[in-house]
Write a structure and sequence with these properties.
Layout lengths: L3 E6 L4 E7 L6 E7 L7 H12 L3 E5 L16 H13 L2 H17 L3 E10 L1 H12 L5 E4 L18 E6 L7 H11 L5 E6 L17 H19 L1
Parallel strand pairs: 3-4, 3-5, 5-6, 6-7, 7-8
Antiparallel strand pairs: 1-2, 2-4
Helix pairs in contact: 3-4
């Protein structure tokens, strides 16, 4: 299944989104939120996979203000470093605004049933958490989000279901940060947290054999799809 690039109108301008739709042409919407490597081949494959599961999925280019259309390969050192450089320049606040614009675009798109959720990886995991707090999304799935421990106060604004996938051996989210997240969000009626033993950051990225962990990825995706089926279908 192959998608296509479309234009999305945001508050500050127009940016690209990679859209993939189900064979039947209709279903709930999903915003697929990028890592620090842009809307690259792997993220597009995830978007296509979700379309195969019955969702109208869009991966918006959130780096359009910095380096529009960039696609990086995290297995190449220079490109990995470029992703970290862009992350340092990126405004999460502006990113969430762009995600809201993408959600609104999906809701109005012919074929969408009006329900729209989101999922994100790495930087996208952080943005998925913020999207749950700051937008009208219907459900969120945050994979190994970075920096969430510094924004726990945002959880007070979350009114829709959130699932969080934490890599226990995450090289970018320390055990102390993980403990702070779980302690700070414990008892939140809308948030469920799952930890994956032996899993490193990026454990869902099949293209990166040093980080990919199939059993953890499959379980995390199974839980995410169950959430979206319950909340969006």
């Amino acid at each position: 299944m192959a998608g296509k690039e479309i234009s999305i109108a945001g508050k500050d301008g127009t940016f690209m989104g990679y859209l993939s739709t189900p064979v039947g042409g209709s279903g709930p919407g999903l915003v697929v939120i990028q890592e620090v490597f842009g809307v690259n081949a792997w993220l597009r494959s995830i978007t296509d996979w979700l379309a195969g599961e019955g969702y109208m999925a869009i991966a918006p280019d959130l780096f359009w203000r910095l380096d529009p259309g960039i696609q990086l390969d995290p297995t190449k050192e220079k490109e990995f470093d470029k992703g970290l450089e862009l992350f340092g320049q990126f405004s999460a606040d502006k990113g969430v605004e762009d995600i809201q614009a993408t959600i609104s675009t999906l809701r109005k798109m012919p074929g969408c049933n009006g329900n729209v959720g989101n999922l994100g990886f790495c930087l996208g995991g952080l943005l998925s958490y913020l999207t749950a707090a700051r937008t009208d999304t219907d459900a969120s799935a945050a994979y190994y989000g970075v920096g969430i421990d510094n924004l726990l106060g945002e959880a007070d604004k979350i009114k829709s279901p959130v699932i969080m996938h934490i890599a226990r051996d995450d090289g970018f989210v320390s055990p102390e940060s993980q403990a702070k997240i779980e302690s700070g969000l414990k008892g939140h009626r809308h948030i469920k947290i799952h930890g994956y033993d032996g899993a490193n950051h990026g454990f869902c990225r099949e293209s990166d054999k040093t980080h990919f962990k199939a059993d953890a990825a499959n379980l995390a995706h199974e839980r995410t799809l169950r959430l979206f089926k319950e909340e969006l279908m």
